[in-house]
Specification:
This protein has 152 residues and is an alpha+beta fold. Helices cover 13% and strands 22% of the residues. The protein has one domain.
Length: 152
């Protein structure tokens, strides 16, 4: 009986817990369909603010620019898109070697960075698989679970 009372007291003392919904998991037609402080992306999914852009809402960047993570939890930025095509060697340090819109430079087993298509499911990858879900804080914040299409 004491244990039950202690648990009940703990629940009342803690109050309600606020749980953050998973980003990129809720469909929306207008911003009103999203939780407070979230935006409705052009892909009809809700995303938290205040990121500058989102990888699946490439229309959030001006023409010719792609959405790239800054790394280290610093958010995202619209940068001029690089010319590097899917599965080609890349290096995000210079625009001339940066991946194009919708791709991320990912180091492969051979140690070479290659442009990999961002994905949420296998359907985004055609005949390839969507896995290697990225642990990058910015990508997690952008859409909960983002991976890259595998080529190996």
């Amino acid at each position: 009986m004491r244990r039950r009372l202690a648990c009940l007291a703990l629940v009342f003392a803690a109050g309600c817990l606020e749980v953050e919904p998973p980003a990129g998991q809720f469909f929306c037609a207008t911003p009103a369909d999203c939780p407070d402080g979230w935006v409705c992306g052009s892909d009809a999914l809700c995303y938290p603010e205040p990121l500058a852009c989102y990888p699946y809402d490439q229309t959030s960047c001006p023409a010719g620019q792609g959405c790239y993570p800054l790394g280290g939890g610093a958010g995202t930025i619209c940068w001029p898109a690089g010319p590097v095509a899917e599965n080609a060697p890349c290096d995000d340090s210079m625009q001339a070697t940066r991946c194009g819109i919708g791709f991320r430079c990912v180091s492969r087993a051979d140690g070479v960075g290659r442009c990999s298509r961002l994905c949420r499911s296998d359907a985004d990858c055609g005949v390839l698989e969507c896995n290697n879900f990225l642990a990058d804080e910015d990508l997690i914040a952008m859409a909960g679970r983002i991976g890259v299409c595998t080529y190996e």
